Amino acid sequence: MTPHLPVSPSSSHHLLDAAPTPASPAHAQHRRRRRRRMERFGAVFYVPGNHDLWLRRENGRYMDSLEKLTALLDACSELGVDTGPRIIGDLGIIPLFSWYHKSFDKEKDVNSVRVPSLEMACKDFHACQWPPDLANEDEALALYFDKLNDRNQDAIEEVKKSSKQILTFSHFVPRQELCPEKRMLYYPNLPKVIGSDFLERRLRTIHDNTKHGAACHVFGHTHFCWDSVVDEIRYVQAPLAYPRERKRRMNGGDGWLPFCIYRDGFNPEIYPALWSDYYNKNRREPENTQLAPWVAKYFSKYY
Q: Could you tell me which residues belong to the region Disordered (predicted)?
């Protein structure tokens, strides 16, 4: 197995050079079907999210989530899925590895109601398994994932030099302003498990010389539709979301199509999105911890 992740002499326990598990005939057939589906697209890009690294049904196949990450990236390489920078026409596309850390949350906590702990509310704390020196409790894990991008630095510089427009994307959130205020959330501590300051700094160095209107970052994780421009970079989230969430949106999902962000240039139309539309008209009040009516009703019912 060719390791995809950087490893230092002191981190051999990350098992990045472990021997691959032989594929069963059924698994090999499944990969062939996936490869045929991939051939329908000119290019497919991928970055791992938190669900991808859960170890809930792997039956001991991986020792930890980093070993599973290595296997995922190997599978992408085999299938022709890009996990690194690439230039397509005038557009440079740069996937960014990331993870979240609690210190990403800089806004005042909601203390008027009892909020379940992160360990109770977030399955990652139980479904992911990390080496002893990496954990969700501090910034170590987020920093580790951010440093994975260093291996692509030469390719990133080539994209910056050769592309008229640049699209970066990540699973996690780069700025807290791209999430509703805590008083608006059914789980007010959500900002502690969604984003990374390292990610925002990283994408800013990529877009530092990009002209206005030619820089875009696509993100995910929170399932909040979003489209806004902050400090000359456009931030977009157009989530497929869970089926139960789709039923509450977009006419129940009927006629839904993916949002086109680029076609011979970035789509200049800012698409309607509940929360980014709200903050385009209303000032953010992070010091205000008075629960929104729907949140107060929820807590009165369940707590």
A: 1-33
Which residues lie below 8 Å from residue 260, measured CB to CB, with a gap of 6+? 267
Look at residue 13 and tell me if it is in a domain: no
Q: Is 78 contained in some domain?
A: yes
Instruction: Check: CB of residue 221 under 8 Å from CB of residue 270.
Output: no
Using the Cα atoms of residue 36, residue 169, residue 209 and residue 196 in order, give the sign of their dihedral: negative
Give the Cα separation of 51 and 54 in Å (integer): 5
**Residue at 180 is within a domain:** yes
Which amino acid is present at 175?
Answer: R
Domain contains 2? no
How many domains does the chain contain in total? 1
Structural domain boundaries, residue 198: 26-300
| 277-294 confidence digits (pLDDT tens) | 999 999 999 999 999 999
170-209: pLDDT as tens digits:
999 999 999 999 999 999 999 999 999 999 999 999 999 8
Confidence of residue 43 (pLDDT cuts 50, 70, 90): very high
Angstrom distance (rounded) from CA 173 to CA 193:
10
Residues in the chain: 303
Contact 156, 162 (CB under 8 A): no
